[in-house]
Amino acid sequence: MKIHIKGGRLIDPRSGVDAKKDVYIAAGRIVSIGDAPSGYTANRVIDATGLVVCPGLVDLAARLREPGFEYLATLESEMEAAIAGGITSLACPPDTDPPLDEPGLVEMLKHRAQNLNQARVYPVGALTQSLKGERLTEMAELVDAGCVAFSQADAPFADSLIFYHALQYAATFGFPVWLRPQDPALARHGVAHDGPVATRCGLQGVPVCAETVALSTMLILARETGARVHFARISSAEGVELVRRAKRDGLPVTCDIAIHHAHLTEMDIGYFDSNCRLDPPLRSQRDRDALRAGLADGTVDAACSDHTPVDDDGKHLPFAEAEPGATGLELLLPLTLKWAEESGTGLSAALARITSQPARVLDVDAGHLTPGHAADVCIFDAERPWRVTPDSLKSQGKNTPYIGHEVKGKVRHTLVDGQIVYETR
Amino acid sequence: MWLNPANPQLDKKGQLHHLLTLEGLPADILWQILDTAKTFVSTRVKKVPLLRGKSVFNVFFEPSTRTRTTFEIAAKRLSADVINLNVSVSSQSKGESLLDTVDNLSAMHADMFVVRHGESGAPHFIARHVAPDIHVINAGDGRHSHPTQGLLDMYTIRHYKKDFSSLRVAIVGDVLHSRVARSQIHAFTTLGCPEIRVIGPKTLLPAHVEQLGVHVYHDMRQGLKDVDVVTMLRLQNERMQGALLPSAQEFYKYYGLTQDKLALAKPDAIVLHPGPMNRGVEIDSSVADGKQSVILPQVTFGIAIRMAVMSIMAGNK
Known about the structure:
The complex is a heterodimer of chains A (about 425) and B (about 325). Helix content of chain A is about 30%, strand content about 25%. Chain A is of the alpha/beta class. The longest helix of chain A is centred in the middle third of the chain and has 18 residues, at about 210-225. Chain A is globular, with a radius of gyration of 21 Å. Chain B is an alpha/beta fold and about 325 residues long. Helices cover about 35% and strands about 15% of the residues of chain B. Chain B contains 11 helices and 9 strands.
């Protein structure tokens, strides 16, 4: 299949190209950018006039809910949501049931995903068996099965020594470790940022020090063990500053934020809106502004969807009893564009945060458009508004703080391996 | 029923449809409730037909004797039919969701739900999901709000002090876990009280509490100086010793209201307590039973306040 993407504004953040250029695809790969190769006849021409053509998006955190939580979402529904959101590569955390702690499970997930022939799935393996924080998993075996990194999800370690050994062992092989910095004791029973809104609403707070205490420990252990550490879902100004300083000191750490944290604050909880029950919690305006600044100056390497499908039974509850999380795959692009517009960030720089930079964190060949490499492409209308409604979302998760909101940026075509996997008017 | 999204207690005429919190309630509604309660207190009638034919469901997800009883008495004096449901020991233990419970109770043609729940925000959640003609009254939710308690406290203070605009008030003890403290703070602010103090150890004060418009004191003697009104909060048994406080004895020594500490307040200062009291923990018996205590009048006025709230809501169509 030869596909000619014609007349679009080509943005490839990695190479810095931002120009009106055509893309020529054959046999799953990009064969040329700009001029047609000699003798090239397309089977299909995509008219991308007025549209942006960029690398397929790379999402560092998408819970697909398989195995174990198929009642909340299935691989089929969530993969469809991913490609509808322009996402062609995604990493899924190990907090499934059972957790992704043994090679058979990982192979099964990879296999199921490959059969769907949609987005590429990169499983993040469990750092410890059953995520209990007690015994290490067979990390090398898990990497052979397809894991790209290891994580403890939100589960605590039994003690600091086990944590230390887990980092040492991962560092032995150079495997990246993704950590969510949250001290379990300081965050215990917390459901909202420990600020004026939690005080007013009488909700148990999660103090910022739950993040910074954990981050400080993790930074010290990363330095000590030489492990490649990625911090997932930074939520506070102080957290961003700790990462900024560590990077300045030359520590090879990276971090991401959930894109909704670049927009929302604790104030959005309003009268106990359980759609704003998120983990990490929405914090103050000052924290939000620091996350945005970190995303702009490169301290924050990537924005992710932190996609977490929760059903109505999990959300139609008093705030503290509601399950945390929001659907996000289909909002990653619009919310990134919104951040770009509001912060005056150029489109190419903004797209880097959801393409080339997360690909660098993942250390996979994705997130760029280069002749000779796989044709994973997202073609979108940056100006087209649409309303977020349960019906407009392909994900089985319909709950998000953005339900009912109008957002801008609509994916028109998604290509994986040179195949059109998603297309809409 | 269209309810104001910025304040889901108010209908499109700005009238009270639900009573969920005192936060954001306009002063004229607070005065209306206080004035209406006053007519019930002064006429001393035992029964009026204002809620005849209406059913009031007391839906308590958390055990309570006093609050439930005063709501029951208030509803009966208004001639309503009262149904008491102790949900904590029935459907919830069978695994029924809160939403199902609410739907079922709505289907029984209630006119008013009086709700107590252990989770902050549960009455808001219920108010969002009930049939549009049902009124919801919050009888205490988690640490969030206990609006009728806040109102009866205001009634009591107004009864003894007449005017809020020159009062200095102090709220003492476990503010962190107290829905009464939050309700009082909002009411005081709306009614124009110029100085609100909260007094307690740092472990029992919520983060950024000063943003509610209060002055924070850790030294009770300083905090009580020249105040007109002292509200003592109940300290829950399970919090008397542990990570928040070392012991009830130490708490009593530093934050218990004794005669000598009360002497620092104005000579005519009054002492409130939402009950039930822990004598010898947050309050000394000689203060609780002393002449500055208005703890029993609070209970009496509580019935009038609840009658006022229910009759006003029933009149707002």
